[in-house]
Write a structure and sequence with these properties.
The chain folds into six domains: about 1-30 and about 330-565 and about 860-1040, Multidrug efflux transporter AcrB transmembrane fold (Up-down Bundle); about 40-135, Alpha-Beta Plaits, CATH 3.30.70; about 135-180 and about 270-320, Multidrug efflux transporter AcrB pore domain like (Alpha-Beta Plaits, 2-Layer Sandwich); about 185-270 and about 725-785, Multidrug efflux transporter AcrB TolC docking domain, DN and DC subdomains; about 570-655, Multidrug efflux transporter AcrB pore domain (Alpha-Beta Plaits), CATH 3.30.70.1430; about 670-710 and about 795-855, 2-Layer Sandwich (Alpha-Beta Plaits), CATH 3.30.70.1320. It is about 50% helix and about 20% strand. It has 33 helices and 30 strands. Strands 1, 2, 3, 4, 20, 21, 28, 29 and 30 form a nine-stranded antiparallel β-sheet that branches. Strands 5, 6, 13, 14, 15, 16, 17, 18 and 19 form a nine-stranded antiparallel β-sheet that branches. The chain has a four-stranded mixed β-sheet with strand order 12-7-24-23. The relative contact order is 0.11. The model is unreliable at about 1030-1074 (pLDDT under 50).
Length: about 1050
C-alpha cells in the first residue's frame, strides 16, 4: 500500500482503467424491467376429437396428468399442475419452480407430450397445442389498421414490407405480423345430397386426404445404402379440390364440387377479433430471446416501422400497444435520478459537516466509482440492468460514503494531533498510520453490513428471485466502496498535502460549526442526566417495550400484504366473462356494447382502446389513459360502473406490459373435494349461495363454474341395427355444427387449414337437430330415428390440482384499487360455513376445506422473517469475533429492535405494505443500525480502559462520536429518501424498502444515542462497583471485563479509530464530570 500511496498516478490510472471497463461492461448488460429469474407456466391443450369429456378423461387424462407431474430433472421440477376438462377440450397448466429455465421447461413438456400422444387418435394428436408464458422478459405489440379498407387488404400490403425485415431483429426470438382473420379452405357440404347419396363426412375426409397428404412407402436397400420410399402429395390448388373424385357406397363416382361448395375465406365461427379504437387490426408481435435485451429489441422494431412507414398505404394507421422500451427507459431514468438526488443529498450533508469542497469531493467520489465498478461483477454473475438491480444501486448510494468518511476523518485527526513534517516521507507515514488504524474497522464494518444478506440464500425461490438482484448489487457496490475508501481516499489526501505548506489549513471548517457545538453541548447535558436517572431509564425501557408490543400486536396485522409493489402504468384492462355463447361473433357483439358504454362514460380520459375476443365466452378491452396519475381514481370509478350481472361478470385490473408475474392470490378459497363430480358441484353451489347471501365478499365465484350447463345429449337406440356407429354419428354432428379441420394446404406461401363443415346456422334448436337427415341402409332418415335427442343439465367441467379433483370457491374484495389488511371476512366466512354444515349433510366422500388462499405470499414473508432472525445471529457472531465480549455485543444489538419501532411506525404512517421489499429493508437496516452502536460501545469501552470513570468514558465517547454518527446516518437516510418517496415510473416497487430503511434508521439513530450509552454505563458501573466492593484492583476490573489484554490506545480486534478526532471538523467534546 505504501508504494501505491506514494505513486498517485499509478492509482489514478488503475482506477480509471477499471472505471472505463466498468462503464463498458455496464453498456453490455441486458436491459429489462425485472430480473431474469422466472416461474414458467407451460400450457398444454388437447381437443377430444369425437370423444366426450368422460371418455377422454378416463382413457387419457390420468396418464397425461401423471406424466406432466412427473417432470423432475436436475434443473426442472413441477410445483403445481392444474387440469381442466371442458365439454370439448382439456387444458393443463404446468407450473414450474421459480428460477427454472423457460425454454428447458417448454422443451421437456413438448418432448413428453409429443411422445405420449403418438398412440392417440389422429384428431387428438393434431389438436395438441403447447405454449409457454413467462412474462418477465416482456414483449412488444403494435396494431395496424385502416378505417376504410378490410383487414385482408391491409395485410396484403404490409406483409411483404415488414415480414422479411422482422426476421433480422437481432434480439427477437420471434417477430411476426399476424392477421387474426386467418383464412381457411372451407368445404361446405350439402346435407340433402350427402344423405341421399349415403355419404358421411369421414368419406369426404378420406377422399380429400388422398390428394393432399404424402405417404411413406417403406424403404429399399440398393447396394450398401438404404433408400426411403415416399409418395409425394400432388401439387393441387384450392380450385382443384372441386375436381376430386368421391366414391359413394353404391359404387357411384362424382365430383366433390357436386356435393359441396369450396371457398378460401375467413371462417366466421372460429376467428379471433382484435380492434383498435373500434377498427379491426393486424398485430405486430415480438418476444425477446432468453437473456436478450428487450429494450433494444423494441427500439429496433420501432426504428424499422418508422423507416418503412413511407412505403405504407396512406390509409394505414398504427398504434404501439406494448412498448417495454418506453416504460423501461422511464423507469431506469427515474432510478438514475434517484441515485443522483440521493448522492447530491449525501454530498450536501458532507459539506455541512466537513465544509471543504476538496474534502467533500474526496469522500463523495466513492459513490459513482463504486457503482461503476459494480457493473463488472454484475456482468460476470449473469445479471441484467433492471428496476431491482438499479434500486440496489440507489440504496447503496447513501451507504457507500461511510467508509470514506471514516478514513478521511481519521487522517484529519492524525494531521492535527501530530507535528506535520515538512518532507514527503513524514507525510506518507502519517497517512499510512491513519489508514492502518482504521483499515480493519472499515473492512469489518463493511462485512457486517453485507453479511446480513447471506440468509437470503436459504429463503424461498420466490423471495430470492425477486430480491436476489438487489442484494447482489448492494454487496457488489458497497464492497467496492471499502476498496475505494482504503485506496483512493488516502492517495488523494496525500497528493493534496504533498506540496502544501500547512496541510492542516486544508482540513476545512463546517459552515454550521456553531450550531453543531451547541448540539454537542446540549446532547452532553441530556445524556449525562439520562445515564444517571434510573427512573428515566426505566420509563424509557417500558415505553420502548410497550411500543414494540403495541406495534407487533396491533400495527403489524393492519399492514396489507403483497409480494412486490407494482409499477405505475397507464393501461387498464376490463375483462368480460359469460356463458352460453357458441361462436366468437356472439361475444364480439356483447363486447362492442360494453366498449361503447366505456367510451361514452370515460372517453375524455382515454387515448385509445384495444379489444380482443378469442373465445365465445370471454374477451377483454384495454384502455390507455391520457394521464396515468389518475389511474387509482379511474380504477375505482370503473369498478363502480361495471358491476357483475346475471350472465356477464367483469374483472378490472391495471396492466403493465413488462410486469413480473407474481402471485396474485384471492382473499378467500374454499375447496370442495372428493365424491363424484355432481356432488362436488352441488355442494360448491350451495356453499357459494350461502356466502353470497351473507355478502361475505363482493366478488364470489367457483372454479369451474358451479351452475349447470345445458347439453344436448344423444342416446343411440341400441335395439336398432344400422350400419352407422356412435362414432360416425358424433362425427356427422360435429361437422354439422362446429366444423372439423381435416388437413392443410399451402396457399400463397401460407398454411391454410382445410375445414369440413355443413352450412352454418343449419340447426338452431334441439328439434332441428333431431330432424337432421342421415343416409343409412339406402334410406334417408331423421337423426331422431336413430337416437333419443334431449336437453339435459350437467356439470360444466372437471377441475383438478395435482391430481386432486375439486371445486374451488373463490372470493375477492371489492375496490382492489385500495390496499387493505382487513381480514374480518374470514371470520364471517367461517361462521357461514359452520352454519351451512349444521343444516346440510355432506354427500358421501365429500370434504370441505378452507384453505390459506395466500399461502405462497405468507410462506415467502415467513421465510424472510426467519432470514431477519438469522441476520441478527450472524451480526452477533461478527460482533463476538470483533469485540471479544458477549456483553458489549448484546449492547450493540439493542440498536436493532429500536429500528423495528421506526420500521413499523413508518410503514403504518405512510400507508405502505408488508412486502418482500419491506422485510428486506429490515434486513438491510440491521446491518446499518449496528454500525452506530458499534462506534459508541467500542469507543466508550476503550475510554474506560484508559482509566476514565464510567460516566466520563461513556458520555465523552458518545459526544465525540456524535458527528460521525450523524454524518453516516444522515447520508444513508437522505440517500434513500428518493426511494422512500417512490417518484416516477417504477418508484412504487422499491418504496416499501426505502420507507423501512429511512424510517427505521431515524428511530434507531435517535434512540441509540441515548439507550446504548445508558446500557453501557450500567454495565461498566456494575463491573466497577462489584470490584470496588471486593477490594479488587483496577487492573483486575479490566481483566474481569475481558479487555485488560489490550493496551490503552490499541485497537482490540476489529474496531473503529482509537482516539477521538480533534480537528475543527470533529472537535473534542466538553469534559463531563463524573
Amino acid at each position: 500500500m505504501k508504494a501505491l500511496y506514494a505513486s498517485p498516478m499509478r492509482v489514478y490510472l488503475s482506477l480509471l482503467v477499471l472505471a472505463l471497463f466498468g462503464v463498458w461492461m455496464g453498456t453490455r448488460l441486458p436491459v429489462s424491467l425485472f430480473p431474469n429469474s422466472a416461474k414458467p407456466h407451460v400450457y398444454v391443450n388437447l381437443g377430444y376429437g369425437s370423444m366426450d369429456q368422460e371418455d377422454f378423461k378416463s382413457s387419457y387424462g390420468g396418464t397425461i396428468e401423471s406424466r406432466l407431474r412427473g417432470i423432475n430433472t436436475a434443473n426442472l421440477k413441477v410445483e403445481k399442475l392444474e387440469a381442466d376438462y371442458g365439454t370439448k377440450s382439456a387444458s393443463y397448466d404446468v407450473e414450474f419452480q421459480w428460477g427454472s429455465d423457460p425454454q428447458d421447461a417448454l422443451r421437456e413438456a413438448t418432448n413428453l407430450m409429443t411422445a405420449g400422444v403418438a398412440s392417440y387418435p389422429k384428431e387428438v394428436r393434431d389438436s395438441l397445442n403447447i405454449y409457454i408464458r413467462s412474462q418477465n422478459s416482456g414483449f412488444f405489440a403494435a396494431s395496424f389498421y385502416s378505417e376504410t379498407r378490410p383487414l385482408d387488404a391491409v395485410y396484403k400490403d404490409l406483409e411483404p414490407i415488414l415480414t422479411p425485415r422482422l426476421s433480422q431483429i437481432e434480439d427477437a426470438k420471434e417477430a411476426e405480423l399476424w392477421n387474426p382473420n386467418h383464412k381457411k379452405i372451407v368445404i361446405e357440404l350439402d346435407p340433402a345430397r350427402m344423405a341421399s347419396l349415403q355419404l358421411t363426412p369421414a368419406m369426404i375426409q378420406s377422399a380429400v386426404q388422398e390428394k393432399t397428404v404424402g405417404f411413406g412407402g417403406g424403404s429399399i436397400e440398393i447396394g450398401d445404402a438404404n433408400y426411403p420410399i415416399v409418395v409425394r402429395k400432388p401439387n393441387i390448388r384450392v380450385e382443384d379440390l372441386a375436381s376430386l373424385r368421391v366414391a359413394t357406397p353404391a359404387g357411384q363416382s362424382l365430383l366433390l364440387g357436386d356435393i359441396a361448395k369450396i371457398d378460401y375465406r375467413v371462417d366466421e365461427g372460429n376467428t379471433h377479433v382484435m380492434k383498435t379504437s373500434g377498427s379491426p387490426s393486424l398485430i405486430l408481435w415480438a418476444a425477446p430471446k432468453p437473456g436478450g435485451n428487450v429494450k433494444k429489441m423494441s427500439e429496433d422494431i420501432l426504428e424499422l416501422v418508422d423507416r418503412m412507414k413511407p412505403l405504407f398505404p396512406a390509409d394505414v394507421k398504427y398504434k404501439v400497444l406494448v412498448d417495454p422500451s418506453e416504460f423501461i427507459r422511464g423507469a431506469i431514468e427515474n432510478v438514475f435520478h434517484e441515485v443522483l438526488i440521493g448522492s447530491l443529498l449525501a454530498v450536501g450533508i458532507l459539506f455541512l459537516f466537513i465544509g471543504s469542497f476538496r474534502n467533500v469531493v474526496t469522500a463523495a467520489i466513492e459513490i459513482p466509482l463504486s457503482m461503476v465498478l459494480a457493473f463488472i461483477l454484475m456482468k460476470f454473475s449473469g445479471m441484467n440492468l433492471n428496476l431491482i438491480s438499479l434500486g440496489g444501486l440507489a440504496l447503496a448510494s447513501g451507504m457507500n460514503v461511510d467508509a470514506s468518511v471514516v478514513v478521511l476523518e481519521n487522517i484529519f485527526r492524525h494531521l492535527e494531533k501530530e507535528e506535520t513534517p515538512k518532507d514527503f516521507a513524514g507525510k506518507l507515514r502519517i497517512v499510512m498510520g491513519a489508514v492502518k488504524e482504521v483499515r480493519l474497522a472499515v473492512i469489518a464494518s463493511t462485512i457486517a453490513s453485507l453479511v446480513v444478506f447471506a440468509p437470503l440464500a436459504f429463503t424461498s425461490a420466490l423471495s430470492y428471485a425477486v430480491l436476489g438482484d438487489l442484494a447482489k448489487t448492494v454487496i457488489f457496490s458497497h464492497g467496492f466502496s471499502a476498496f475505494v475508501a482504503l485506496l483512493l481516499v488516502p492517495t488523494v489526501r496525500l497528493h493534496l498535502i504533498k506540496h502544501a505548506k500547512d496541510p492542516k489549513a486544508d482540513i476545512g471548517h463546517s459552515p454550521i460549526e456553531g450550531g453543531l457545538k451547541k448540539l454537542e453541548a446540549g446532547y452532553a447535558r441530556a445524556l449525562g442526566a439520562f445515564v444517571q436517572s434510573r427512573k428515566l431509564q426505566v420509563f424509557t425501557a417500558g415505553a420502548i417495550f410497550a411500543a414494540l408490543a403495541g406495534l407487533f400486536l396491533f400495527a403489524l396485522p393492519k399492514l396489507p400484504k403483497e409480494v412486490l409493489g407494482t409499477p405505475d402504468t397507464d393501461w387498464v384492462m376490463l375483462g368480460l366473462n359469460t356463458q352460453g355463447n357458441t361462436i366468437v361473433r356472439q361475444m364480439e357483439g356483447e363486447t362492442e356494447e360494453v366498449e361503447t358504454r366505456l367510451l361514452q362514460k370515460f372517453g375524455d380520459e382515454i387515448r385509445y382502446t384495444f379489444t380482443q375476443v378469442n373465445q365465445p365466452n370471454s374477451s377483454w378491452i384495454m384502455a390507455r389513459l391520457k394521464d396515468k396519475r389518475k389511474m387509482k381514481d379511474f380504477w375505482k370509478r370503473l369498478e363502480a360502473e361495471f358491476k357483475d350481472g346475471a350472465t356477464l361478470r367483469f374483472w378490472i385490473n391495471p396492466w403493465n406490459p413488462a410486469e413480473l408475474p407474481l402471485p396474485n392470490p384471492p382473499d378467500l378459497r374454499i375447496a370442495v373435494e372428493g365424491g363424484d363430480v355432481e356432488d362436488r358441484r352441488a355442494t360448491a353451489k350451495s356453499i357459494l349461495d350461502a356466502l353470497k347471501e351473507k355478502k361475505v365478499l363482493p366478488s364470489l365465484w367457483t372454479e369451474p363454474g358451479s351452475d349447470k350447463s345445458k347439453t344436448i345429449v344423444l342416446r343411440p337406440n341400441l335395439n336398432l341395427e344400422s350400419s352407422i356407429s356412435p362414432y360416425d354419428l358424433a362425427d356427422i354432428l360435429r361437422v354439422a355444427t362446429e366444423g372439423k379441420n381435416i388437413h392443410y394446404m399451402n396457399v400463397n406461401r401460407e398454411y391454410a387449414d382445410i375445414m369440413l363443415r355443413y352450412p352454418r346456422g343449419l340447426m338452431k334448436t334441439a328439434e332441428e337437430l333431431g330432424s337432421f337427415p342421415v343416409g343409412i341402409d339406402g334410406k334417408v332418415v331423421p337423426l331422431r330415428a336413430l337416437s333419443d335427442v334431449r336437453i339435459e343439465e350437467e356439470a360444466s367441467g372437471i377441475h383438478s390440482e395435482n391430481g386432486r379433483e375439486l371445486y374451488a370457491i373463490i372470493g375477492r374484495k371489492e375496490n382492489s384499487a385500495e390496499k387493505t389488511s382487513d381480514r374480518g371476512y374470514l371470520k364471517v366466512a367461517d361462521s357461514v360455513l359452520a352454519d351451512w354444515r349444521a343444516s346440510h349433510a355432506l354427500p358421501s366422500g365429500i370434504n370441505v376445506v378452507t384453505e390459506d388462499a395466500q399461502v405462497e405470499v405468507n410462506d415467502a414473508i415467513h421465510q424472510l422473517t426467519v432470514a431477519v432472525a438469522l441476520s441478527i445471529a450472524m451480526i452477533l457472531l461478527t460482533l463476538l469475533f470483533q469485540m471479544g465480549s458477549l456483553a458489549n455485543s448484546l449492547i450493540v444489538l439493542v440498536a436493532i429492535p429500536l429500528g423495528f419501532i421506526g420500521v413499523l411506525t413508518s410503514l403504518l404512517v405512510f400507508q405502505s405494505t408488508l412486502s418482500l421489499n419491506s422485510v428486506l429493508g429490515v434486513i438491510l437496516l440491521n446491518g446499518i443500525a449496528v454500525a452506530n452502536s458499534i462506534i459508541l460501545v467500542d469507543f466508550g469501552d476503550r475510554r474506560f480502559r484508559e482509566g476514565m470513570a464510567p460516566k466520563e468514558a461513556v458520555v465523552g465517547a458518545a459526544v465525540q462520536r456524535l458527528r460521525p454518527i450523524l454524518i453516516t446516518s444522515l447520508t444513508t437516510i437522505l440517500g434513500m429518501l428518493p426511494v422512500a418517496l417512490g417518484f416516477g415510473q417504477g418508484g412504487r416497487i422499491l418504496q416499501p424498502l426505502g420507507i423501512a430503511v429511512s424510517g427505521g434508521l431515524w428511530f434507531s439513530m435517535a434512540l441509540t444515542l441515548f439507550v446504548v450509552p445508558a446500557l453501557q454505563y450500567r454495565w461498566l458501573s456494575r463491573g466497577a462497583g462489584k470490584a470496588a466492593g471486593k477490594g479488587v484492583s483496577k487492573g483486575r476490573v479490566l481483566r474481569t471485563l475481558g479487555r485488560a489484554k489490550d493496551a490503552p490506545g490499541e485497537v482490540p480486534g476489529l474496531t473503529v479509530p482509537v482516539a477521538p478526532p480533534v480537528s475543527a471538523t470533529m472537535p473534542r467534546a466538553p469534559e463531563v464530570s463524573s
